[in-house]
Amino acid sequence: IKNQQKIIVYNVPQHQAIDCINGNNYQFIGDSILLVDGVLQNFNLKPSRVALQLTNRVDTLPIIDKPLFYLFNNKKIIVIDRSIQFEPPLHKIDVDLIIISKSPKLYMAQLASVFNCTQYVFDASNSLWKIALWQKDAEALHLNIHSIPAEGAFVYNTGM
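Request: output the structure for the sequence above.
Response:
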């Protein structure tokens, strides 16, 4: 467990909740209400953190201060939680994981024209009708997707 390196996108309905885990340390990315020690945190996040023996929270970023791109254990991660227009680049950008949150206005075909991404994740903060629309488009484009509301939490091992 002390060598674990992973990203967990939790199934917290109507909230964004992501832990980037390195050993016993974790960085939380998501809604600030989940930083408060209360029912939402105790029910949705703590069981996993206890099981994984996570003891040290570092550099926690509430949603307001959050960047779009992350590099974690040499994995390129994008968290899209607002509507963004991408211009197709000369060469597609290689990305390991794209997490879509907060029901932004976007089109999977547009993302696929900009990024070579191995995994797309739709978290539980998105409206179900938007996820259904994105899933349909992603399947037509043969993109690898994971819907948190339908399939549960997503665990992405980034190392040992």
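Residues 5-157 form one domain.
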